[in-house]
Design brief:
Blueprint (H helix, E strand, L loop, with lengths): L1 H6 L3 H17 L4 H10 L3 H12 L4 H11 L2 H13 L4 H10 L2 H10 L7 H35 L3
Helix pairs in contact: 2-4, 2-9, 3-9, 4-5, 8-9
């Protein structure tokens, strides 16, 4: 619960960013289905922001993917930093955790836990905190991105 509570001050920004991205996707010419798929699969607002004008301009897929990859290179740095925290997990769980861990939850987590856990109890506490923040972040992002998508589709330009 503490991880979710620590995300609360960031929620106004997430709400505004999610709404903006949702409306932007639909107004760029993407269908509602494409926009919903993008927000569910690409849990990275900055990648969405970089990809939307490229999609609207009809850029080749490789350009869109390369752009999204470059924009999100910071997540490589995050994962390298968190490596010692989560090496005890199987790769599939680390990948799953990586999908849900965003900028906000990474910062809150590393601020609260400057060092990896040494005991199983500490590991559980650290994982619980991170998942609390991740779930809060994901739910708010998806909710307001979807709201933006459906509002963008409902109202004429």
């Amino acid at each position: 619960m503490q991880g979710a509570k620590d995300c609360i001050p960031m929620l106004p920004g997430m709400v505004a960013w999610g709404l903006t991205m949702g409306v932007s996707m639909v107004n760029s010419g993407m269908s509602v289905v494409e926009s919903v798929a993008m927000t569910l699969l690409v849990f990275a607002g900055s990648s969405q922001l970089a990809a939307i004008p490229l999609i609207a301009a009809g850029a080749p897929l490789w350009v869109i993917l390369a752009t999204a990859f470059c924009v999100n290179l910071r997540f490589v740095v995050f994962s390298l930093h968190l490596r010692d925290y989560f090496m005890f997990l199987p790769r599939s769980r680390r990948l799953w955790l990586g999908y849900f861990t965003g900028d906000v939850t990474y910062v809150l987590y590393t601020r609260r836990f400057p060092k990896p856990a040494e005991t199983e109890r500490q590991r559980r506490a650290q994982m619980s905190y991170l998942w609390g923040g991740n779930v809060c972040n994901w739910i708010f992002w998806q909710t307001f991105s979807m709201l933006g998508i459906f509002m963008g589709a409902a109202f004429p330009e």
